[in-house]
Structure formats: structure tokens, C-alpha cells
């Protein structure tokens, strides 16, 4: 009797699985037969939480992932660095302190903290860093600095932007590059009134603006173009006639931080008339870089723990965090703080977890590069691996809820992806990924939701 009952249960489960697969197949074909998908490519893969196969359409096909690339980077960072890993920013000095006068230079160094001055974390906002730094300087008995302020921004290599990022993205806030010293997520806010630039939330005195923006429409259709270390910036496109804030990426975050620190010093009554220097600019100008005093460190500032950074990385898709993780992995595991070393490590990491190397052609850590080519099956394999790890709760918490499903999304031009976890009304636990490229319609998310809704 028990055997007959087991056969009935097995048969009903098989029928249910076949029924879901049939519905998904019909929905997938309807999607691909629609006019906006006339020339589209699709990779789609679904498994149960146990790893049992449910359905695929070209599951092994590598496509541009957009931000679902982040699921690979976040998982590797949690496993290799650990959820309690912190970045550190330190201040030190050269010379001597006598009668309140620092007869030497003041230094600030960092190992790439992407959260320094971020507004996202309680207790770690710009004013918190300012207060702690100035207090440390005063506690050291310094009331005057005779030398310069030096930003040591060479922990990572010189390249600040991954190869392959589109030029249209670089100057906008989500296309911010990565330095060894970052500040306010390397983002500035520009106050606009129609096509007039009214001001900035940070010191941008070193940047010369070309303003080609026009007044039109009711929404922000502007683009900002900045380049690393350049003092020339362009804004074009259209903006509504009302006052509005647009956000761009700083061309030189360490220098921007240095200008702010100079202002803080003067506000605090600490006399400083020296220069703001960075080691990267010393290299650009062919000058000798500054050696950082190791014995005169008087201030250490820890970032939020990695699990908190991963949360915002996944929840708000902060590209800067992903590229920081990439360079940090390269530095920690290969003693090479470059994008190429980090990307190579990331690929090796996932190969070691059983993912076919042909399905994970990574180009960066965030997915902004259209040169990332990853398959839906590889994404599901990564999600299944993460589900079994002790750090999974820190990972899963960052996934946004969209369309009633816990999933990370990705968007670049004419491409969309979703990858995540969902429990159906019947209690079935699914792990899924869907990627579409060259879809020409405006309602691309809705089109994919119609397919994914069959998992509900």
C-alpha cells in the first residue's frame, strides 16, 4: 500500500513538473514571437531548490547580463573576504609636532573603502568621518600644519574604469570609477534650474564645465560626461524648466576629498595653507610619489562590515561596490589590485564550484560592461551554491522584491535580466534566471514578468 501511495505521489509530482514546464515553454515562445523580440536572444533556466531541473530555453547561451552579474561578485566576496571584513582609512604625518605645529605633511590613505562618506549607513556619513578625523587631529595637539595634505591613493593600480564600460555611462553617477581613496561613492550632485548650473554639493572648483543642456520636457533626459583625472566636463541632453538635481561621477575623488578636508581644517581653527596633493597626480606629473609614514599613524577609520556593503550592492545595484570587490579580491588573492586580476580570480572561483568556464565570460564585477557574457544556467548554479553556504542570509537579504519575487534585476540598453529565488503558492521553491538581449520594446520588464508569473 505504501509503495502504491509513493508511486501516486511521484506520478503527481512528475505531472506537476511537466505541467509547469509546458506553461513556461508556451510563455517563452509567446515572448519570442512578439514583435519587440523579433531579433532578441534569450537564455532562461529554472531549477528547484534541490537542484532538480525544471525548464530551460538556451540555458547555456551566454548573453550580456547587466546587473545580475552582481550575484557572482557578491557571493565570492562574502566567501573569500568574509561578512565581517572591513576597509580601513588611516591618517598619519611626517616630521614632528612642536608647540601645536605639525612641521611636516598630513597624510590620508585607504585600501579602497567604497563607503567612505556614503550617505547610506548610520554612523558612517560624511559628517561622521569629518568629526572623527578633526577630533583625532586635535587630540594629537595639532593646531597648525606647515606642510601639505597628501592623499595616498595608490593601493590599487592606476586604472579606475573597467575596460568596456560605455562612454555614455562614465560621467553619470552609476558609472563612477574606483580609486584607492573614494569619497561620497564618487558621486556629486549638480543643482540645475532649467539649463543653468546653480551649484554643487561638493567642491568642484577644479572642473571646467561645457553646458549644452537644453530646456525641454518634464523629466531628466540629460547626460554628464566626465573622465578620470580630467578637469573638463560636459552636460548635454534636456532638462525640465523647474529646479532639479542631476548626479554625476567625480573625475578625481581623492582630490575632492582633499579640498573638503582643507575646508574642515580651517572651519575647526586648524591653520592650513598648504597644497592638496595626491600620489596618483604625482605620477601623472612625473614627480616622485610620497612615502607614507608607518610609525606616525594616529587615526584609523573602519568601514561598515562587508555584509552591510553587500546588502546595498545588491539592493540598490551600486556599481562602485562591485568593482571595489573585484580589485580587493585581486589584491588579496593575487597581490594585484587590478580589474584583470580580480576578474580572473572571479572566473577561477566559479569554475572551482563546477560552472563551465564557457558560460562565465566576465568583464567586470558589476555588469555595466556589455562585454559580460553569462548564461542563465550559470546564474542558477551560482544561486544554488550560495543557498548552501553559511553566509547565505547576508546574501539573500540584499535581493530586492520585484513582481512579488525575491530577485536581482539588471538593465542595460535593450537588455534585461532577472535572477533569484521564489516559493510558489503550492510551496515549490524555485531558483531561476532569465536574460534577454536586443529586446526593442519599452515594457521589457512586464514581458519577462508574464513568463516568470508561471512560477507563482
Layout of strands and helices, then pairs:
Elements: H1 2-32, E1 41-48, E2 53-57, H2 70-81, E3 88-93, E4 96-98, E5 101-103, E6 106-110, H3 126-139, E7 144-145, E8 149-152, H4 167-170, E9 187-193, E10 196-200, E11 208-211, E12 214-215, E13 221-225, E14 232-239, E15 243-249, H5 253-267, E16 271-272, E17 276-278, H6 279-284, E18 297-302, H7 306-315, H8 319-334, H9 339-351, E19 360-361, E20 373-374, H10 376-387, H11 392-397, E21 401-402, E22 405-412, E23 415-423, E24 429-437, H12 444-452
Parallel strand pairs: 5-7, 6-8, 7-16, 8-17, 11-14, 12-14
Antiparallel strand pairs: 1-2, 1-24, 3-6, 3-18, 4-5, 9-10, 9-15, 13-14, 19-20, 21-22, 22-23, 23-24
Helix fraction, binned, reads 25-40%
Indicate the CATH architecture of the largest domain: 3-Layer(aba) Sandwich
Largest sheet: 6 strands, antiparallel
Physical arrangement of strands within the biggest beta sheet: 2-1-24-23-22-21
CATH fold call of the largest domain: Beta-lactamase
Instruction: Give the rounded overall mean pLDDT.
Output: 95
Strand fraction: 25-35%
Category by helix and strand content: alpha/beta
The CATH homologous superfamily of the largest domain is named: DD-peptidase/beta-lactamase superfamily
List the keywords.
12 helices, D-tyrosyl-trna(Tyr) Deacylase, Chain: A, five-stranded mixed beta sheet, globular, 24 strands, 456 residues, alpha/beta, Beta-lactamase
Amino acid at each position: 500500500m505504501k509503495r502504491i501511495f509513493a508511486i501516486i505521489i511521484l506520478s503527481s509530482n512528475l505531472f506537476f513538473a511537466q505541467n509547469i514546464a509546458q506553461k513556461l515553454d508556451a510563455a517563452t515562445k509567446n515572448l519570442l514571437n512578439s514583435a519587440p523580440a523579433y531579433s532578441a536572444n534569450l537564455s532562461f533556466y529554472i531549477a528547484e531548490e534541490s537542484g532538480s531541473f525544471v525548464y530551460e530555453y538556451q540555458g547555456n547561451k551566454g548573453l550580456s547580463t547587466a546587473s545580475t552579474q552582481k550575484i557572482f561578485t557578491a557571493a565570492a566576496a562574502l566567501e573569500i573576504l568574509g561578512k565581517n571584513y572591513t576597509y580601513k582609512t588611516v591618517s598619519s604625518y611626517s616630521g614632528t609636532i612642536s608647540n601645536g605645529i605639525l612641521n611636516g605633511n598630513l597624510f590620508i590613505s585607504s585600501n579602497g573603502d567604497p563607503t567612505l562618506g556614503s550617505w547610506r549607513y548610520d554612523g558612517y556619513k560624511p559628517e561622521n568621518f569629518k568629526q572623527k578625523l578633526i577630533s583625532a587631529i586635535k587630540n594629537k595637539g595639532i593646531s597648525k600644519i606647515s606642510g601639505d595634505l597628501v592623499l595616498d591613493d595608490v593601493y590599487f593600480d592606476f586604472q579606475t574604469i573597467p575596460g568596456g564600460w560605455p562612454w555614455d555611462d562614465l560621467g553619470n553617477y552609476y558609472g563612477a570609477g574606483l580609486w584607492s581613496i573614494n569619497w561620497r561613492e564618487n558621486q556629486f550632485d549638480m543643482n540645475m534650474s532649467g539649463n543653468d548650473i546653480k551649484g554643487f554639493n561638493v567642491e568642484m572648483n577644479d572642473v571646467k564645465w561645457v553646458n549644452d543642456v537644453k530646456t525641454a520636457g518634464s523629466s531628466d533626459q540629460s547626460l554628464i560626461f566626465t573622465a578620470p583625472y580630467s578637469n573638463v566636463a560636459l552636460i548635454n541632453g534636456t532638462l525640465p524648466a523647474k529646479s532639479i538635481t542631476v548626479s554625476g561621477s567625480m573625475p578625481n575623488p581623492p582630490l575632492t576629498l582633499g579640498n573638503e578636508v582643507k575646508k574642515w581644517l580651517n572651519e575647526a581653527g586648524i591653520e592650513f595653507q598648504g597644497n592638496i596633493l595626491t600620489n596618483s597626480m604625482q605620477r601623472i606629473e612625473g614627480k616622485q610619489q610620497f612615502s607614507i609614514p608607518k610609525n606616525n599613524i594616529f587615526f584609523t577609520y573602519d568601514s561598515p562590515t562587508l555584509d552591510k556593503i553587500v546588502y546595498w550592492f545588491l539592493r540598490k545595484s551600486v556599481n562602485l561596490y562591485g568593482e571595489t570587490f573585484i580589485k580587493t579580491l585581486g589584491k588579496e588573492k593575487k597581490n594585484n589590485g587590478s580589474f584583470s586580476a580580480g576578474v580572473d580570480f572571479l572566473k577561477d572561483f566559479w569554475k572551482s564550484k563546477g560552472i563551465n568556464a564557457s558560460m562565465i565570460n566576465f568583464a567586470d564585477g558589476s555588469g555595466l560592461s556589455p562585454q559580460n557574457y553569462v548564461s542563465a544556467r550559470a546564474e542558477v548554479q551560482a544561486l544554488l551554491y550560495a543557498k548552501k553556504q553559511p553566509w547565505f542570509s547576508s546574501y539573500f537579504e540584499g535581493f530586492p522584491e520585484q513582481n512579488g519575487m525575491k530577485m536581482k534585476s539588471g538593465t542595460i540598453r535593450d537588455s534585461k535580466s532577472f535572477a533569484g529565488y521564489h516559493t510558489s503558492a503550492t510551496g515549490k521553491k524555485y531558483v531561476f534566471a532569465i536574460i534577454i538581449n536586443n529586446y526593442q520594446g519599452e515594457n521589457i520588464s512586464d514581458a519577462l514578468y508574464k513568463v516568470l508569473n508561471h512560477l507563482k
